[in-house]
Write a structure and sequence with these properties.
Length: 291
């Protein structure tokens, strides 16, 4: 009798192993096919893009270092003028930082409300949670440069279109991040405030925000870093700031490469400075060392 049970168990184990190995083989096959399709699409897409390119990628690959070399050589020849040029573009840098700061502040406030209205257990109108989540999805799905181009067509050039475009994208991105943090909130404080007759806004301000404030501030600082780079990029499409000055100096070509180098130095130093500063404070907030 024991021999029969042992043989039955061995047969069952063998069937389980066979089924498991067959499932592993299928997963490997599907993974290999997916990878192959991805490679084929990437290669075909690259070939199509290369055919439509005016110069061709492979034909111009050997010239990839020519432009940086021209910029560096001219900047080195006029290195004595670099301090004055850096000081000249400080107002444009201040404009870029202002665009990033204002857009981050507005986007963080918008993302805060979208996240609270789209989080289960915290939303004021639970039935509208999918609506608020789709709104935040749309806001972060559209690139800043697309929104900026539309706003520049409507409002004209300047920092305002850039600020609005970055704020819209920031609100959508932070709404997603804030919502993930809010979902882990301890609801005991919210329930206690609710039992005392507190309004929804009071429950959020007194029961939720004290718990999630460090993470919210950390994500907001991270977005501020990103928005500094985004505001500089949007300057290339006429949205003002340091990117606009960089586009003008690069468009003139030789003769103003020293200005382009000065702007590069200014932009790089600013990004590194704010990256280090915000990283330090984000670490202190998340690790609880800011007290």
């Amino acid at each position: 009798m024991s021999d029969i049970s042992l043989s039955g168990s061995a047969h069952t184990i063998g069937n389980i192993q066979s089924a498991y190995m067959a499932q592993v083989q299928r997963r490997r096959l599907y993974g290999g096919l997916t990878l192959l399709i991805f490679v084929v699409l990437m290669v075909s897409g690259f070939n199509v893009a290369d055919d439509r390119n005016a110069g061709g990628f492979w034909e111009g690959l050997h010239q990839i270092g020519d432009y940086p070399a021209d910029v560096l050589s001219e900047a080195w020849e006029k290195r004595a003028d670099l301090p004055a040029l850096i000081a000249k573009y400080f107002p444009a840098l201040a404009e870029t930082i202002n665009i990033a700061a204002v857009s981050t502040l507005i986007g963080a406030m918008g993302g805060l409300f979208l996240s609270l209205l789209g989080t289960r257990g915290l939303a004021k109108w639970p039935r509208l949670i999918p609506l608020f989540r789709r709104i935040s999805d749309i806001m972060r799905a559209v690139p800043e440069i697309v929104i900026a181009l539309v706003l520049i067509f409507v409002l004209g050039g300047g920092p305002v279109p850039a600020m609005i475009a970055i704020a819209i994208h920031t609100a959508g991105a932070l709404a997603k991040m804030f919502s993930e943090v809010s979902e882990n909130t301890d609801l005991k404080a919210v329930e206690g405030l609710s039992s005392t007759g507190a309004t929804w806004l009071q429950r959020m301000l007194l029961g939720v925000l004290p718990q999630v404030a460090p993470n919210y501030l950390s994500y907001a600082l991270l977005r501020f870093e990103i928005n500094i780079r985004a505001s500089a990029i949007l300057g290339f499409v006429g949205a003002g700031g340091l990117g606009y000055e960089l586009r003008n100096s690069m468009a003139w070509g030789p003769g103003r490469f020293d200005e382009a180098a000065a702007i590069f130095i200014l932009l790089f130093g600013t990004i590194v400075f704010f990256d280090q500063l915000s990283s330090r404070y984000r670490n202190r907030l998340t690790e609880g060392q800011g007290q």
